[in-house]
Task: structure prediction
Amino acid sequence: MKPKKVCNHVGCNVLIDYDKSYCAKHQTDKQQRVTSDYDVYDNRKEIGGKFFQFYHSKAWKRLSYSYRLRNPMCEVCLKKDIYIKCDVVDHILPIRNDWSKRLDENNLQALCHSCHNAKTRAESTRLSLTPLNKRG
Result:
């Protein structure tokens, strides 16, 4: 007789064989999640188009890496006399607004994840408040 364990699905207390991960009920949920995660990636790739390709290009990876070497601290935090390592190289003016500035070092800034998320949130809020006929 094989040893039993609880199903890995949160809140499920069904006992299953030790070499399995999910009970019969939640096995299908797991398969659907994997499919949907793949679909999300494909959807982002399709919607992102040239932007998605750009952020995976050698030119961007090289520029981003060299910029982080020259600017190892978050520039926003540094202005507040807080010393935090930079995690992301961000475009000051988003490349969706001006594609020609995608490799312009004057349009880059080194940010920590917290500052980058705050900037992105502020940009998306501004974008959602902009009337549809004025979006670029």
